């Protein structure tokens, strides 16, 4: 059975809920899923996964949350050829750089040679019904790309 790993950063819970939605959707599609907070795992753990997913919020002026910086830097060192990846996250459009960290992780994943399995999903604060639909579609799209 294919294995998906979801790594998330979440200060006030919005991104964790988003990660939960993706996790449940992938499980419903028959995958094994491991979900961990970003300080509890190494980026190299993605080497054992078929699908690698990051869920992150964006902090001040479009900066990465402090707690995910080490993970982000480790990810830059990896070769994830033959893996699928996807990125989701929460932000607040009140700020200039809405969900910028989602795009930052997208770029880093692309540089690892992983293949983008689904378009990123950016959520305004907490996920609402339309976001849940988009997150479930994201999961389905990723699974459809498995070889
Ligand atoms: N959201 C953005 O999209 N871009 C930002 O630059 C940004 N800066 C923030 C700075 C501060 C001090 C705070 C408190 C929030 C900021 N946000 C920004 C909004 C958070 O990303 C948003 O509240 C998100 O839902 C938090 O996710 P969490 O509940 O998983 O911690």
From TrEMBL:
Low-potential electron donor to a number of redox enzymes. Belongs to the flavodoxin family. PANTHER family: FLAVODOXIN 1, FLAVODOXIN 2. Keywords: Electron transport, Flavoprotein, FMN, Transport. This is Flavodoxin. Its cofactor is FMN. It comes from Vagococcus penaei. InterPro entries: Flav_short, Flavodoxin, Flavodoxin/NO_synth, Flavodoxin_CS, Flavoprotein-like_sf. The keyword Electron transport applies. SUPFAM superfamilies: Flavoproteins. Gene3D superfamilies: 3.40.50.360. GO terms for molecular function: electron transfer activity; FMN binding; oxidoreductase activity, acting on NAD(P)H.
